[in-house]
Amino acid sequence: MADVPQPRRVRPKLAMGLAGATGLGRPLLSFGFILTLWIAVTGAGLVPEQIFPSPLSVWQATVEMAANGTLATDLAVSMRRAAIGFGIGSVLGVTLGLLTGRVALVRALLNPFLTLLRPIPAIALVPVAIVWFGIGEGSKYFVVSYTVFLTVWFNTHHGMEYIPDIYLRASRSLGASRMREFLTVVIPAAAPHIVAGLRLGVALAFLSLVAAELSGASSGLGHRLQEARQYIRTDRMFALLIILGALGATVDLIVQWVGRKLVHWQQG
Amino acid sequence: MSSGHVRVDHLSITFAGKQGPVTALAPTTLHLAPGSFTALIGPSGCGKSTLMNAIAGFVQPAGGAMTLDNTEITGPSPDVGVIFQQYALFPWFTALGNVKFALKRLGLPRAELHDRAMAALEEVNLAQHAAKFPGQLSGGMKQRVAIARTFAAGPKVLLMDEPFAALDAQTRIVMHHLLTDIWQKHRATVLFVTHDVDEALLLADRVCVMSQAPGRIIRDYALDLPRPRSLRAQADVLLPIRDEIITLLHPTHADA
């Protein structure tokens, strides 16, 4: 068949420029835009500095916290809590998800109950956690791991339910034992869902951690945020919020990258 | 040595439907001689895939009996290999890994496992693609890996459910030759489900035609012709049968 000339798509100039901004270009453009807006609003003096701090004072607050050492300590403490909570929650979540997906009895015993737990927000658990584990590390681990567990369990179980029947048929007619089928067919087939659950779990780990640190903690980014409220240090609050955002985004990128390596066969 | 003898006697299959059980297969009797190549052809929904799934052990029958070499078929087994239309390769394993999966149950030493898997890929001319994942292979290549994988498990019976339906005409011809060659080497008993009359005539020793749902076998042709076949070269035998089958498959067209 002869080549039919395609009508040329004419794009407006601005869109053309945006399409050219690839990789880091796009986020930088967006950040630059918001930063300019921020400078303009605070520079115009419409809002008191103490309520809505300028980018410069937020930067200075960051430098201040970095210099007196609280930033590094808070980061380390919070990251440690998030990591341990995530570790416990995700191991439990994947294990139980594989069990409820595979063993009818476990499913019958646990699924209705776990499904009922899912809508309870993590913050609502903080008071219970404090009564049970005090304001130390225990309550943070509990809240984070509980939140991560439910999400990871749900996604793992969901992934197990949607394993294409044809994989199991192929595996059994090729003579695989149930154990080999479980390890080399069922788990990889559910892996894309499990990885998606872990990624959600990471985001929720930060969310629930800060919730737990806001009330009843003596260290960590969430605690520092609460402390800044007592001194009405909005510049510190903004600095901490931005750090939390950047931290969450970075970890999410890493998890996404690792996930893609793990389930390399999954396209799109 | 007579292995791969399949006997299906008065087998019927029902599925649970919204308004009670639905008959997917009316009582059907089919005997497959060891090492024979039988094509099963019928209109869509006639139950030909259901019959195949029953012999594969994927579906429990409602009545009747199925045996392989006088042993009742109760579930999937490596004696009965299956080639699926959708290939059913494991996308997380390479082509080689997929073939190795079939060999694992033999408990071979590592080196032998690797060599035998490579030999199986060699047989379907895919040795140079051994390290590729299914997502990197074309449809025809995927089905070749699946054929290598299934034959590697050493089945006595090979069930193929419209294995080439998703391939283009050119690739299908290549696959017909490849399948014929490998089958003549391994001599498993083949049941080949298709809705392509020409494919059935080119490949099989025997062609069974099924009726509209609920299906039964309404005609049984023996084809004692040398391979490779062609509709043109063997027209005097094949074309009359072809016309008959087409009329059987589309009875309403004759009336219209």
From TrEMBL, chain A:
Localisation per UniProt entry: Cell membrane
Gene Ontology biological process: transmembrane transport
Keywords of this entry: Cell membrane, Membrane, Transmembrane, Transmembrane helix, Transport
Domain ABC transmembrane type-1 intervals: 75-255
Main subcellular location of this protein, as a coarse class: membrane
Pfam families registered for this protein in UniProt: BPD_transp_1
Gene3D superfamilies associated with the record: MetI-like
Matching PROSITE patterns: ABC_TM1
Name of this protein: ABC transporter permease
